[in-house]
């Protein structure tokens, strides 16, 4: 991300307010004028039914935005009825609607030192949004600048007391929050248990019974009008007398689902009978204390207390209760766990009240009846072409975005007056990031490694340090938050805790070292400025799921998550789709010192197998760099927990993340994850054991196979059997042939290939070794077998697919300029045959190109012949050309020619691109093909696409819908 130098020098008018510095923009040039725009037709269908669910033609987007990003933004965020003049027609209108609202509010409330500063703020914010450097959370795009209430917060925490009025008000407040496109959480521990008496003498219903009504209400309301189902969190303290009933609530409903499914009812997610199952619209979490966790470790009894007077009603064995939590989570992924004492130890406002609950995804934790608006930075945008991290620009963008987020509270509307009052008094913000997993991979850091954790910790520390530094600066201009004076000592104590945690980070390499130095300086300024000015915001940072907005920014990974898989599904501009190896992989390989030939071979291998195990030329010690959430080398559960622990000390709030475990995981393993989460200082944790839920539909591919199997089993037996056999087509007596001499790893050999009259390959002979030797005999037998196969109609493509990438000695460099490196003799022979006898399209999908084609790709970004003969589908070529641009190239102001020069020089290019199978509609479905098993994730109710995890929620690649807050 290239900073515009020389633009900082300008005349200012004296006055109290923030002086906004330029980061990307140029004086006198509007950011829109630095972008090439194009019109696109956005048509979205439900691939299962074939129904068109959305259509808007001629919408305007930057040419570097992906099809997916423009589709999701158009369908989710454009306001106005489609087909009317009020409908937004492009990204400019959307960004202007939001940014200009922020600028007006900033001027009105005295944030800027001058009108010039306000204009710079407008231009920088516009540039950063258009270039996908960051994004606000979804409610901002839904509501800001429209006639609707200006709800900007995605996260809400409610409060409910032990009275019927309060309980019914809870239902009402949740409904309004869901309607505005947000999620809410609350703690039900004030409600008397079913073991306690009412004032009338009867027995109380207990909190679990009241959860039924709230769950039914949530299930009927779609968030933001029609964008996604409502998201909610329900928390209960571990010392509540009804805690066992709460723990087992969703597990028992899962038993019900199984029974009804076995009885023939439609219990798939979205099925007509699933509505009879309760408690499915909320995430449940148990709030545990240090006292309880110590009792678990020591095997002691633990008291469950009355809600009325705090007396102990009964005691339980702490270890047994803890095991029940783990067992329920093993069965259905609920409940999660929240660590109460850790949460409140980092609380900046304890004089106002304790933190008792969180939002639905567990990243926002603050006072009851409060809200938080979110924004996330795209970390990969700060990685320069030379693989250094642009620390100065990163800090500047954090300060810009946190300023905008604070301004939004000045004009925001809130669903209830108590929430509005608390939010205006404490001004909680939640800046975070996305693409951490992609950044780690691109820079050669394993997600589950000390280097990866050190880099993540440094980035997060600088994020929060820069945010609080700007918060203190804003406090010097417009004053600290209203509740600061009451909590000043506690707030400053937490700032010093963050600073001390930063001092404990031990950088491992130059990249995290430079970031950590900036973080250390930022925290020094935070403490110093805070003493002078106080702080504008009670909270500054969280790590959210970044589901929909992650797609808006074209991020490879969401929030703190690692990469989902090494091979991705991608839509094409003109329709259709392809599968492509992550573009961060060749960049990572290049950084780690691999040659272009080796990079190409590794990328081709990944395209074929979906993983790096036994990839040609890849050192085993580098495997960890390419570990992913799914696939053959998936990250171990404790790898996720350790990454969360690395960044948690540098967040005001917490982290939205689920620790995934394999289907074979035991209850004891989940217990250990919960226990280690407490010991490592996490604030909250959720787990998901693969395939633990019943109410998830199978992919259509598998269902189709099952249907076919049932059809075959039910088919009547017929006496007459018609058998079809291939017929051998022999070569003519006189045929053309060519002989190629070759050397692989210093060993020499000869390849003779004979063809039919039409030029089609029909036989081959391999000579390798002395005549009469065992090796020569094996080669003769192999040649005959392949030749007969070719003559019986086995396509050459099949042999190429099976025998390329075979790995055995001799292997290494060859004397063939078209195949510079081979993993074995077989690998070389069939690559040579593919180049000589297969058409361009077929071998290109297999990643096999000649030296001339590779040179052409470096010059033009495309392997295809200039004259268009035997070229790929035009849409595919256009997309491959755009994909050859380095994904981490910073959004500097470039001409088309300059962008072409920025093409990836890894040597991998488009070798990783292949047409996607017609049955595949998402990366989640693509990984199913590689691992050979169904991915345990829900199907999107909007477009029918298999969703994938994002934090504690799921997100749809097809339309951007999420199962939680974004």
Automatic annotation (TrEMBL):
Residues 43-132 form the Ribonucleotide reductase class II vitamin B12-dependent N-terminal domain. InterPro entries: RdRp_reductase_class-2 (IPR050862), RNR_2_N (IPR013678), RNR_lg_C (IPR000788), RNR_NrdJ/NrdZ (IPR013344), TSCPD_dom (IPR024434). It comes from the Bacteria. GO terms for molecular function: cobalamin binding; cobalt ion binding; nucleotide binding; ribonucleoside-diphosphate reductase activity, thioredoxin disulfide as acceptor. It catalyses: a 2'-deoxyribonucleoside 5'-diphosphate + [thioredoxin]-disulfide + H2O = a ribonucleoside 5'-diphosphate + [thioredoxin]-dithiol. Belongs to the ribonucleoside diphosphate reductase class-2 family. This is Vitamin B12-dependent ribonucleotide reductase.
